[in-house]
Amino acid sequence: MSGADRPGGFLPGRHGIDAYGNGGFRFGDMSHRGSILLLPSGVHAWGVERADAIDAASLAPVLAEREGIELLLVGTGADIVFLPDALRQRLKAAGIGLDAMQTGAAARTYNILAAENRKVAAALIAVS
Fold it and tell me: How far is residue 104's CA from residue 22's CA, in Å, rounded to a whole number?
């Protein structure tokens, strides 16, 4: 994340997505190249580059903050990719709903739900 020195690619607080594309995102007067997680604790760099790499390990930070999350929006890139049922069931067992969609739609939906103070998180794969 540029704009400030953030160990581990972390910006505390809730931030809306101002822009996306060109392989990254703009939020909180900063930009980040690569995928991101938007969690109750803040914005985190996310090492996932393709939807088929999304698994329980890559979503461990989401599960760690499950008390503050009712819905996880997953932006799967330029195309909608359905996530494995086992992953959906794992999130459901943790009390988290899951909705997968294109990254742009997920970013816009996140902004709306976050503005309504909903318990929403997002896992967004960067798009070109």
Answer: 12
Backbone φ and ψ for 20, nearest 5 degrees, come out as -145, 160
Rounded-to-integer distance, Cα 64 and Cα 69, Å? 10
Asked if residues 110 and 120 have their Cβ atoms less than 8 Å apart, the reply is yes
Could you tell me which residues come within 8 angstroms of residue 109 by beta carbon, excluding any fewer than 6 positions away? 73, 99, 101
Residues 22-71 have pLDDT tens digits of: 999 999 989 999 999 999 999 999 999 999 999 999 999 999 999 999 99
Helix (H, G, I), strand (E, B) or coil at 11: strand
Half-sphere exposure of 110 (CA within 13 A, CB side): 32
Half-sphere exposure of 108 (CA within 13 A, CB side): 6
CB contact set of 107 (below 8 Å; sequence gap of 6+):
17, 20, 25, 75, 122, 124
> From the centroid of its chain, how far is CA 77?
11
